[in-house]
Design brief:
Order of helices and strands: HHHHHHHHHHEEEHEEHEHHHHEHEHEEHH
Number of strands: 10
Shape: elongated
Structural class: alpha/beta
CATH superfamily of the largest domain: ABC transporter type 1, transmembrane domain
CATH architecture of the largest domain: Up-down Bundle
CATH topology of the largest domain: ABC transporter transmembrane region fold
CATH class of the largest domain: Mainly Alpha
Oligomer: single chain
Strand content: 5-15%
Largest sheet: 6 strands, mixed
C-alpha cells in the first residue's frame, strides 16, 4: 500500500477540519504580507526615496489589521488541529486493534507488547501530522508566490540571484532524505526495543527477584538505552543539520541582496524600503523551499511508520489499516451487544479428532490429539511440564491456529474455533489470568449488563465472598494493573468468578488451582457442581481434580499417551502412575 493512500484516507477522516485548517494557515501566511508591504512603505516614508501613498497612522492601522487577521488564522488552526490529530490517530489505532483482536489470541502480536505499544503511540502521530504539514506547505507556497511576483516586479535580477541559496536548500535536503529516513527507522526500532523490554520487565518482576537477576536486567536495559541514544542522536543530528542549512541560506541570501542592492541604491534603482522588503521576503522564500525538502523527508519517514503499522496486521490486507468506520471520541458510546444463551449454544457432546499444532522451528506442540466428552462431565488433561497441555487448550479454542484436525460441537464441525469458543458457549481462564486496572466489578462483568447476571452467586461459586468483605470498597475496589493488588489465589478466583458470571455451556480451566490451597480448590469444585450442571475441560495435576474427573487425558510429548478414569489409568498407564507419585523425571521444558 502506498504512503499517499494512507495520507489521503487520513484527510478523508476529517475533511472539513482539514479544509478549515488549510484556510486558517493560508490566512495566517497572507497576513504576513501586510507587515512586509508596510515595512517597505515605512522606510520609503522616512528616507524619502520614493513616493508614499499612506501616512504614518495609516500604516499603523494596517499593522493592527494584520494582527487581527493573524489571530483569526491562528484561532482556526488551533480549533482544527486537535480534532484532526485525535480522530486520525483513533482511526488508525482502531483498525490495528481490530485486526489484532481477530488474530489467534496466542499469536496476536508479531513481537512484544511493549513494541506494539510503541507502534500504536508513535507511528499514527507521523501519519496524522502529515496533512498538517501539507497545509503548511500550501500556505507557504501561496505566500511565496505572491512575494516572488512583487520582487520580480521591483528587481528581477536581484530576485533571481538571491534565490540561488534557496534552490541549494532544496537540493541538499533532498539528498539527505535517504539518510534521514534510515536513522529515523533505527530510532523507532531502538525506542520500541526499550519500551518492549520495560513492559516485559514489569511483567516478570517476581521471576527476576527469584533469580537474583537485577544486575543482569539493569545491564541489558543500559545497553538498549545506549543503542537508543546513539540512533536518536544521529536522527536529531540530521534534523539539526537541515535546520542549519536553512538558517545559513537565509543569511547568505541576505548578504547577496545587500551586495547587489548597494549599487542599485546608489543608482536610485532600488530603495531602502525595497531592500527591507526583500530581506523580509527572503526568509519566507527560504522557509518555503526548506519546507518542500522537509516534507519530502517526512514523506519517507511516514512511509516507515505505515510499514510498521502494517506489520501489526500480520498477514492481513494492508488496506485494513485504512478501512472507514465510526470513531467514538465524543457523545454516547455504542452499547456492547449482549448475547443471551439460547438453544443454538447448547452442548451435548464435544469431539476432537486429529488436532495438531506444531510451533515453528521447534519440536513442541501437539500431534493427532483425539478425545471426546459429554455434557455434565469433568474432564482433566494432565501430563508433565512441556507435554502440550496448554497448547491443546489454546488450539482447541483457536488461540493457536489448528494445523490439522476437526472439532465437532454436537456433531457440527467448528470451522472457526476462535469465534466459536466464546461465551455463552464456553469461557476460558488461562494459567495467569489477566485483570485490568479497573474496579473488581468491571473485571467480572467485562461489559455484560449487570441485570443479566448473578454476581453474588458467581462470587460464592468462586470462593471469593470472604475476600470481598476484606476489600476496602467491595466490588468497587481497584485491583491495579494485572490485578497487582490481589494475591495469586485471589486473581485466579476472580477469573473463575468472571467465567461463572457468564454461565457458559463449557468451562475451560488451565491449571486454575495452581495458586489455591487444597481446601479452597476442593470447595471451588464442590460449589461449581452443586449449583449447575457444569461441563468442564481442566488442565491440572492436582489430586482433588484427578479424583473428581470422569475422564483423564494423559499427554506425553504432545501426543495422547492414554485416557480413561483415574482407577483405570493407575492400573495400566505407566505415565499416569509416575504423575500420581509425583515422579516428573528430568524431561522438563518451559514450552507448553
Amino acid at each position: 500500500m502506498k504512503t499517499y493512500e494512507v495520507i489521503w484516507n487520513a484527510i478523508r477522516v476529517q475533511p472539513w477540519n482539514w479544509f478549515f485548517n488549510l484556510v486558517g494557515i493560508t490566512v495566517l501566511y497572507l497576513s504576513f504580507q501586510i507587515p512586509a508591504l508596510v515595512l517597505r512603505e515605512f522606510f520609503n516614508l522616512i528616507t524619502g526615496d520614493a513616493e508614499v501613498d499612506f501616512d504614518f497612522w495609516t500604516l499603523v492601522a494596517f499593522m493592527a489589521a494584520s494582527a487581527l487577521v493573524r489571530i483569526g488564522g491562528e484561532l482556526g488552526i488551533v480549533l482544527t488541529n486537535v480534532p484532526m490529530m485525535y480522530n486520525i490517530a483513533a482511526w488508525l489505532q482502531k483498525n490495528m486493534f481490530n485486526r489484532i483482536l481477530h488474530r489467534p489470541g496466542a499469536a496476536a502480536l508479531p513481537n512484544s507488547s511493549g513494541e506494539a505499544i510503541s507502534r500504536f503511540r508513535g507511528d499514527p502521530e507521523q501519519v496524522y501530522i502529515f496533512p498538517l504539514w501539507i497545509n503548511d506547505v500550501i500556505g507557504s507556497v501561496v505566500y511565496s508566490s505572491i512575494a516572488l511576483v512583487i520582487m520580480l516586479g521591483i528587481a528581477p535580477k536581484i530576485t533571481l540571484v538571491a534565490c540561488i541559496p534557496v534552490v541549494f536548500v532544496v537540493l541538499l535536503t533532498t539528498a539527505m532524505t535517504r539518510h534521514i529516513s534510515h536513522y529515523r527507522r533505527l530510532s523507532r526500532e531502538a525506542t520500541g526495543a526499550v519500551t518492549g523490554f520495560i513492559g516485559e520487565t514489569f511483567g516478570a518482576v517476581q521471576g527476576i527477584k527469584v533469580a537474583n537477576a537485577e544486575k543482569t536486567i539493569l545491564g541489558r536495559f543500559r545497553t538498549l538505552n545506549h543503542e537508543r541514544s546513539q540512533t536518536a542522536l544521529k536522527d536529531h543530528l540530521f534534523d539539526e543539520l537541515r535546520e542549519a542549512v536553512y538558517s545559513n541560506a537565509v543569511a547568505l541570501g541576505t548578504g547577496i541582496i545587500l551586495i547587489m542592492a548597494a549599487t542599485a541604491i546608489r543608482e536610485e534603482r532600488f530603495t531602502i524600503g525595497d531592500f527591507a522588503l526583500f530581506v523580509y521576503y527572503l526568509e519566507f522564500l527560504t522557509e518555503m523551499t526548506w519546507m518542500l525538502g522537509y516534507i519530502i523527508a517526512k514523506y519517507e519517514q511516514t512511509g516507515i511508520s505505515v510499514d510498521r503499522m502494517v506489520t501489526l496486521l500480520q498477514g492481513g490486507s494492508p488496506r485494513q489499516l485504512i478501512e472507514r468506520g465510526p470513531i467514538y471520541l465524543a457523545g454516547q458510546l455504542p452499547e456492547i451487544p449482549y448475547i443471551a444463551k439460547g438453544r443454538e449454544h447448547h452442548l451435548e457432546e464435544l469431539r476432537v479428532t486429529g488436532l495438531t499444532h506444531q510451533f515453528a522451528d521447534s519440536t513442541h506442540g501437539i500431534q493427532d490429539v483425539d478425545f471426546a466428552f459429554e455434557r455434565g462431565t469433568f474432564n482433566v488433561v494432565t501430563g508433565r511440564i512441556g507435554s502440550g497441555k496448554t497448547t491443546l487448550l489454546r488450539t482447541l479454542q483457536g488461540l493457536l491456529t489448528p494445523q490439522s484436525g476437526t472439532i465437532h460441537w454436537n456433531e457440527k464441525i467448528v470451522d472457526d474455533p476462535a469465534s466459536f469458543f466464546v461465551p455463552p458457549r464456553s469461557a476460558y481462564t488461562s494459567q495467569i489470568p489477566w485483570l485490568f486496572s479497573a474496579p473488581l466489578r468491571e473485571n467480572l462483568l467485562m461489559g455484560m449488563p449487570e441485570s443479566e447476571t448473578d454476581l453474588e452467586a458467581a462470587i460464592h461459586a468462586a470462593v471469593l465472598e470472604k475476600d470481598l468483605v476484606d476489600f476496602d470498597d467491595g466490588l468497587d475496589t481497584l485491583v491495579g494493573p494485572k490485578g497487582v493488588r490481589l494475591s495469586g489465589g485471589q486473581i485466579q478466583r476472580t477469573a473463575a468468578a468472571r467465567m461463572f458470571v457468564r454461565d457458559p455451556e463449557l468451562y475451560i480451566f488451565d491449571d486454575l488451582s495452581s495458586a489455591l490451597d487444597v481446601d479452597t480448590e476442593k470447595t471451588l469444585w464442590e460449589r461449581l457442581f452443586a449449583q449447575r450442571q457444569a461441563t468442564c475441560l481442566v488442565v491440572s495435576h492436582r489430586r482433588p481434580a484427578l479424583r473428581r474427573a470422569d475422564q483423564i487425558v494423559v499427554l506425553k510429548d504432545g501426543r495422547i499417551e492414554d485416557r480413561g478414569s483415574l482407577d483405570e489409568l493407575l492400573e495400566r498407564c505407566e505415565e499416569m502412575q509416575r504423575l500420581w507419585k509425583g515422579d516428573w523425571g528430568d524431561e522438563t521444558s518451559d514450552a507448553e
